[in-house]
């Protein structure tokens, strides 16, 4: 019980900035009004969204549909072009992570430790499968494989068509952790990569869960449990057979996907997240500074400090921009070239999940609804 209580308490601390909602925090928006290529296309009410740290209810976009789950227990499918509601269902339990989707199904995790498979066509419940604790990271879906990382650190492999369990990867978690979990990565249907609360990242065989390699992202250090927190809560990102990850109070690392061999590391810690493009790795550190690091060697390219002290979402690369939402209700548009803050755009409500890019559309979920921005370029 000690671990659960401590994690919950720390989660409330980390989410405190969002609850304050102070609009005087951060740079004056009037100083940053350069035009950007994206304009709002539509907005929709998608139900109540949690502002407590740790939930992972990012929208999922597949083809011509966008799927959104709310803390009110409802799951909705919307037309991606117009925002028109296609269907809506109410689950018996409260969604806490997901949806993850493909053309046939949606996968959602709940606060009560259930994984639910839904029909993408009409929202019918196809199956339910229990795991060992609350789910705070969106399940990962690839083909017939669903991988779930539960809040107690276990990793479960389920069959996408039935929810039947194939294997479990278990490890002893630290006494004190952040509230949150990283999403698993599935690479080529053969390798599952998961960031853990003990500061490590593991590569597991997708067919049986056997550990193939382990890489240190954050090395626990210090005398107290608080000092030794080293969670890898930010989602690892893969590009060109390299996996990039960042740990709380730790480092940004690049490792070889096949062997877990470290390629480079930088002493920049984060629990928020990172993004990668062909040139750079972009990461938000613990003080909300935004860094661009060379993808091949980790060297600093630029650092943006104007957004320090804000509670930022993970970044997303959008065309020539790096975009981050914040708890004060703004979208922040940075130049990929030099990190300059080009535009600080008010959207009227705290941004509760990292924006999602799909083609020419950018989906931004706030605690008052979903906004979609689109470009003609």
List descriptors.
single chain, 377 residues, 32 strands, mainly beta, disordered N terminus
What would your notes on this structure say?
With 377 residues, the chain is mainly beta. It is built from 2 helices and 32 strands. It has helices spanning 2-14, 16-20, and strands spanning 39-44, 60-62, 65-69, 74-79, 85-90, 95-101, 105-110, 114-119, 125-130, 140-142, 145-149, 155-159, 165-169, 185-187, 191-195, 200-205, 211-216, 237-239, 242-246, 252-256, 262-266, 274-276, 280-284, 290-294, 300-304, 316-318, 321-325, 330-335, 341-346, 356-358, 361-366, 369-374. The strands form 8 sheets. The chain has a 4-stranded antiparallel beta sheet with strand order 1-32-31-30, with no helix packed on it. Strands 2-3-4-5 form a 4-stranded antiparallel beta sheet, with no helix packed on it. The protein starts with a helix and ends with a strand. The model is unreliable at 1-21 (pLDDT under 50).
């Amino acid at each position: 019980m000690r671990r659960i209580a401590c994690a919950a308490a720390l989660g409330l601390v980390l989410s405190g900035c969002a609850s304050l909602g102070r609009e005087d925090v951060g740079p004056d928006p009037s100083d940053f009004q350069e035009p950007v290529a994206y304009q709002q296309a539509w907005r929709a009410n998608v139900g109540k969204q949690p502002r407590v740290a740790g939930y992972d209810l990012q929208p999922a976009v597949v083809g011509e549909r966008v799927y959104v789950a709310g803390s009110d227990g409802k799951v909705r499918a919307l037309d991606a072009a117009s925002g028109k509601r296609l269907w809506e269902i109410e689950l018996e339990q409260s969604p806490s992570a997901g949806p993850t989707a493909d053309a046939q199904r949606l996968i959602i995790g709940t606060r009560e430790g259930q994984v639910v498979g839904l029909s993408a066509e009409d929202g019918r419940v196809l199956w339910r499968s229990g795991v060992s604790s609350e789910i705070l990271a969106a399940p990962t879906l690839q083909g017939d494989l669903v991988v779930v990382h539960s809040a107690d650190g276990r990793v479960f492999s389920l069959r996408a068509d039935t929810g039947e369990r194939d294997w479990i990867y278990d490890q002893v978690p630290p006494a004190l952790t952040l509230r949150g979990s990283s999403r698993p990565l599935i690479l080529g249907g053969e390798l599952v990569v998961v960031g853990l609360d003990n500061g490590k990242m593991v590569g597991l065989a997708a067919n049986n869960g056997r550990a193939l390699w382990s890489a240190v992202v954050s090395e626990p250090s210090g005398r107290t449990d608080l000092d030794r927190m080293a969670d890898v809560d930010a989602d690892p990102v893969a590009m060109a057979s390299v996996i990039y990850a960042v740990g709380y109070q730790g480092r940004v690392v690049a490792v070889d996907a096949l062997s877990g061999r470290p390629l480079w590391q930088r002493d920049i810690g984060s629990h928020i997240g990172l993004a990668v493009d062909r040139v750079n790795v972009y990461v938000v550190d613990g003080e909300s500074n935004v860094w661009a690091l060379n993808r091949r060697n980790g060297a600093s390219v630029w650092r943006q400090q104007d957004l320090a002290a804000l509670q930022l979402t993970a970044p997303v690369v959008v065309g020539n921009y790096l975009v981050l939402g914040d708890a004060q209700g703004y979208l922040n548009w940075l130049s990929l070239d030099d990190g300059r803050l080009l535009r600080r755009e008010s959207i009227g409500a705290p941004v509760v999940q990292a924006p999602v890019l799909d083609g020419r559309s950018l989906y931004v979920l706030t605690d008052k609804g979903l906004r979609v921005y689109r470009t003609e370029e």
